[in-house]
Amino acid sequence: MNPSNPLESVFYISIPENFVASDEAFKIDTKIQLPVQKKPDEAPGSFNPSEITTEQILAGILTVLAYDKKNEHLDYYRSIIKKVKPNIKKELCEAAILKTKNEDFDLAEEIFLALNGLDPEDPAIILNLALFLDQRADSYRNSGLNDDADAYDNDAGEYYANAMNAEPPLPDAFFNAGFYYMKQHKYREAKDAFETYLALTCDVKDEELGENGIYKKRTCSGNP
User: Fold this and answer.
1) Contact present, 167 and 126 (Cβ < 8 Å)
2) Structure confidence by residue, pLDDT tens digits, 70-109
3) Running DSSP on this structure, what letter comes out for residue 30?
4) E strand intervals along the chain
5) In the chain, which segments carry CATH 1.25.40?
6) How many CA atoms does the CB half-sphere of 102 hold within 13 Å?
């Protein structure tokens, strides 16, 4: 677990009315300060407002979305970043998956948390975050860091539960949660999750499921 507070790298500024954050101007609420990510090499007291870049503001917004879930201006910050970066969800998801594959877990976690903050109701993002936390827990346990592994396991369990509560139901949430519960030796919960996956996909034709979906159904039914 990272003991540092990422929000310490963010400061807030008031934006002048003529500020343009992209090639296409959009309305800025000058009454709301914007978060700005400090530059890595920025010395204390050396801040120059005229040198702030759009990238610093977007990075500051993502940091707030990731770590300051109770910020009263989250909806406004979301509207800004979606306007400036319409494909931001796709870009962040691809970056998070790549960082996970490279075992750059700290940065991957930050990106996944930012994604969740950007669209907290998206069940696919919630499930991906659960899968990431689950994988990170496995990595820590394989390294003998059992306390950290337990902490990430607990977090993964919360996100799996949220993903399984999505409406409409997300079958893959139950499929992956089943294996999570198996590792936790919660066999009743695992059985329920697998049975729910089967119930949700029972009327789906094999052609629609595809090879991967057929494999999942067989696995849940005990016939891989």
Assistant:
1) no
2) 999 999 999 999 998 999 999 999 999 999 999 999 999 9
3) T
4) 10-13, 34-37
5) 121-220
6) 11
